[in-house]
Design goal:
The protein contains 8 helices and 10 strands. The chain is of the alpha/beta class. It has a single domain, classed as Rossmann fold, CATH 3.40.50.150.
């Protein structure tokens, strides 16, 4: 999805937008640019990606939470991705080498991902802070959300189960889904829609879906 499509959906410049699984913050910066009065809330647990976000001196309307969003509050094992995408990886400005791949990390253990993308490695696990979407919304007095952009690499169930109340007050939810079990227990499209009966499908992309709340803010 691009700026005109998302802008038409949201329809106001002072939107509340969540970027869950922000990695180095590209989409968060896009949202802050596309919506000049929006408050953008970003979530990222991987310290490597967090360093990249902070190094770019993010827009002051971007609010970073250095945690994963899951089913429970506390600590969890995070499977860090590594390896090098020799076909399209970004170049590390300090070393001149292709950057280590940090875009596939997940709270869920990788499964078929190991065979489908053998160049992506999962040689390290770390412990990260985790909260739930609902707990975060309550702590930050966020009652209504215009748009959620989620890229949680197979942990969609964790995000959804920990955020049902917030999702009921969210207008649009854009998320990945799995067609194979890339990560242990990863949700397919049917499982996502079954968990979220108060949403309807607007459009299905290759492995992403845009959902619209049938009764937002009702």
């Amino acid at each position: 999805m691009d700026a005109p499509e998302i802008g038409q959906l949201i329809g106001r410049s002072n939107a509340t937008i969540l970027d869950i699984g922000a990695n180095k913050g590209d989409m968060s910066e896009n949202f802050a640019t596309w919506f000049p009065f929006a408050q953008v809330f970003s979530f990222e647990p991987d310290p490597r990606a967090i360093r990249k976000i902070l190094a770019r001196n993010p827009n002051p309307r971007i609010h970073l939470t250095q945690k994963a969003l899951g089913q429970t509050i506390g600590k969890a094992i995070f499977h860090q991705s590594s390896g090098h995408d020799l076909g399209g990886g970004a170049i590390d400005q300090e070393t001149g080498q292709v950057e280590e791949w940090d875009q596939s990390g997940s709270l869920r253990e990788p499964k078929e991902h190991l065979e489908k993308f053998p160049w992506v490695k999962f040689d390290r696990t770390i412990e990260v802070d985790v909260t739930t979407l609902d707990a975060w919304a309550a702590e930050n007095y966020v009652k209504y959300v215009d748009f959620i952009w989620a890229d949680v690499q197979g942990a969609e169930e964790d995000l959804i189960l920990g955020g049902m109340n917030t999702l009921r007050n969210t207008r649009y939810f854009y998320t990945e889904f799995s067609t194979t079990e890339l990560y242990a227990g990863a949700f397919g499209l049917n499982e996502i829609t079954e968990r979220l009966p108060f949403f309807e499908i607007v459009e299905v992309f290759q492995q992403d879906v845009l959902l619209r709340n049938k009764n937002p803010w009702g």
